[in-house]
Amino acid sequence: MPEQAALTRNLTDMHTPADWPVNETIERLLQHRTIRAFADEPVEASTIAMLAEVCNRTATSTGMQQASWIRVTDKSLAREIAAVCKQDYVAEAAELWIFAADCYRNSRLADSHDSDGMGANDMNRLTQAWTDAVLCAQNLTTAVESLGYGAVYLGSILNDPAKIIDLLQLPKLTFPVLGVAFGRAAQSPQFKPRMPVDLRTFENRYEAPADYAAAFADYDQVMTQYYDLRNSNRRLDSFSSQVCQRLADKSPRRARILQDIAAQGFDLKAEG
Ligand SMILES: Cc1cc2nc3c(=O)[nH]c(=O)nc-3n(C[C@H](O)[C@H](O)[C@H](O)COP(=O)(O)O)c2cc1C
Prior knowledge:
Number of strands: 6
Strand order of the largest sheet: 1-2-4-3
Distance between the termini: 50 Å
Order of helices and strands: HHHEHHEHHEHEHEEHHH
CATH architecture of the domain at 30-189: 3-Layer(aba) Sandwich
Radius of gyration: 21 Å
Helix content: 40-55%
Bound molecules: flavin mononucleotide
């Protein structure tokens, strides 16, 4: 693809090659962009019920359905969550849903049958539940975007998992994974460029480029054309520079997540 066409495709309009079998679903997925400013417009109750069912229908590891979601309708609670996220728009969206890994429900169910639920708190369960929660959040987001709403994921709830656990009264054997805020978009951001797909798509075995800096050079240039509406409507640094900055920051607060997970009753089995 010529460089200018690639740039256009990445920033303003996601043109697709004529021979791609694009349908409405694919079109929507290719048009994904995060929205961080929302109109003051509620989402219909019937839409909310449908979206919950979309989450409920999501594929689930071993059929155990170990994810739950909390719809935050109390605006003062939403503002407390926004404070954890350090992102005001979290409380400004019409809808705020927090997805949690949930091994508690099945543990209680096993208890109620006097069954030995010894395996309820191991890392296998947690990773299953974590994956389920992420998939539910993605299905919600896809559904929301297909309805013409905008959405933003909120990994920032993990700035302080203990606070989120406290605010949402999450029981032991649960853990907050990801938030999704959504509503009618009040902004129209550029499409954030992605690296060339060949750098992420391999056949049969992993393929590392011979020269990483060279492999990312064109993408680095494209990324500096993108205006980031997230904070200050400014152009971003190159991707390489963003990676270097982020990897140089060990972010000790986030690194404590294993302690928070253990405090929720999960057995990390870090040794042996
Ligand atoms: C797991 C995950 C967590 C994220 N957390 C946040 C967040 O806390 N706040 C935010 O504004 N965006 C968040 N995002 C959105 C990303 O910043 C966004 O997807 C990325 O910059 C690419 O931009 P795009 O989605 O517009 O293409 C998150 C995305 C993912 C997948």
